[in-house]
UniProtKB/TrEMBL annotation:
Protein name, UniProt field: AbfB protein
Gene this chain is encoded by: abfB
Top-rank taxon: Eukaryota
Amino acid sequence: MSTLESARRSLAKSAPQEAIREAKEVATSARANKDLQLVAEAVSLQGLALAATGGVVEAQQVLGAELNASRGAGDQRAQATLLAAQSNVALSAGDAKTARRFASEGRQLISRRGAMSERENRELLLRLLVAEANAHLAGGAGEAAASSAWEALALAREAHDEEGQCEALHVMALLFLFFGRTAAQKALEGAAKGELPFASLESSNQSAALLRRLGDKEGEAAAMLFGVAEARLQHGNGLEAQGAARRARDLFRDLRHRRGRLAALQTLVTSLGLDTLAALEATEEELRLFESEGDAAGQVSAFRILADTYIARALYGEARSALRKALELVKGTAAADSEGEILLLLAQVEDTMGRTDAAVESAQKALVIAKSSKLSALVADARRVVSRLQIKCGRVDQAPNRRDAQEALQELTEAARNRDADEFQSVMARLEDLSGYTEDEVKAALIIQDDDDQAGLVQFLKKNQLAVQAAPGASKKSVGRGSIVMTGMSHALLYLSFRMGGLGYGPRFRRCYGYRVEGEGEGALYGAAWLRLLSSQEEWGRRMETQPPILDSMQHSLNAIELAGMTM
C-alpha cells in the first residue's frame, strides 16, 4: 500500500513517474475515507511530480479541479495546500506573477480566524511563504523575496523545524547567487528578523552545516561561498577563504551550476590576492571545463573574469586578447547586452594601452548594438564612453552627448550664480553621466567673472564640492581624480581661492589638482594632490631641468589638500 511519505521519497529521488502512481493511490484511498486534507496533499504531490516530468499543463488541470472541489466543500486548509502546490507549478512554468498570486491567496486563507489549528496554520504558512519568496525571486524582486524568506525562517526557527529552516535558507542563498553579495546583504538586512544567516563566520558555518545535513548542495555551496569564504576574507585569512571557495566550486560543478561556478571562481581569484599564476591557472581551468561541456555562455563569462584578472595586474595586452576571444564566442548569439558590455570593457583596456582610436571603434560598435537591441541602460553607457573618448581625441563635435553636455554646463553656471545647491548637485551628477565636455569647459562654467560676490562664490563651490564628494554614488576610494567634472571643479576652486587672496595665476601656472581619498578605517580620510606637466614650453623653459610652473604648483598642493576636505 502506497503512502504519502513513499511518494515524497520517490519524487526526492528523481523518480516522478513512481511518485505520480503512489500519489494517485493515496488520493483514491483518501477520497473513499472522505479525508479531504489527505486528498489535497496527495493531489498536490501528484501535480508537482507531473510538473517534474514536463507535464505542467496536466499538473495545472489536476490541481485546478481539486481546488474547485475543495472550495465547494469549504475546506480552507485543503485549499491553502493546493494553492501552495499551484504556486510551485506556475513557477516551474516560468509564470512568476501567477505563482505570487496563488501564494498570496493561500496566505489570506490561513490568516482567517478559526480556519485551522495553530500547528496546521504554521506548517501551511511556512510552505506558502517559501513559495512566495521563490516567486518574488523569479520575478527579480529581491527585497520582497528577502522579506518572505525571513518570515519563513523566523517561523521555522520558532517551531524548531529544520526542514523549514533549510527551505528558507535556500531562498536566501539564491538571493546571493541571483543578485550578488552586496544587493542580497542589503535586502536581507532591510527585512531582518534575527541574526543574518550569512553575516558572520559562525552563522555561515551553522547554515552550511544544516544545509549539508539535509542534502541541499546548492544551498550549502552558496553558504560556503557567500558566508564562510567572505567571512574568511574579511578576517584577512586568504588561505582558508580559498578552501571554502574551492569547496563551493566543487559542489557547483557537481550540480552543473554555471552561475555558482562563476561566482566561486571570482571569490577564489580574489582570495588568491597577488598570486597571479594561481589566479590565472584557476580561471583557465574553469574555462577549459566550460569548453569541454560545450557551454559557450560559461566560456564568455570565464573569459571576462580572466580579463579582469589581467587588468588587476596591469597585463592589458593579455586582457585585450581575452576580451577579443569572448567577443568571438558571443557574436551571432542573442546576448546583445553581453556583447555590448564586453566591447565597452575592451574600449577601456584599449584606451589604457594608448590605442584610443581602437577604443573609439570598440565603443561605437557597442553603441550600435545597444541601439539596435533597444537596451536603454547600455545605450547610455556607450554614449558616455564614446563621448569621453571623442573628447580625448579632440573630436568634440563627434561626441554623442555634446549638445546635452553644453546645456548642462550652462545650467551649472546658473546654479552657481543663483547659489542653488540642490540644482547645482543635480547638474553635477548629470554631467558625470553624460561626458562630452572638457575640463577647461567645466572650469569656465564655474569661474564666473561677472559675479559681484566672488567670496560667496568660492564658499558656495567649496561647500558643494564636499557635498558631491559625500554623495552615495561617489567613489569609495577617491573623488575628483578620474572624474572630469570634479577635477575641473576642484581646480577652479583652488585658483579662485588664490585670486581672492590677491594671487592671480595665469593658465600655465595652474598645474595643481587636489582630491580626497578614503582610508581603510572608519571615517579615515586623506588629502592628496597631483601636478600636471605642461605639454609644451617656451625655449627658456626647455633649457631648465624642471618646468618652472611645477615649482610653484608644489607649494599650491597644501592648499589643494585643504580644499579637498582635509584640515591641516
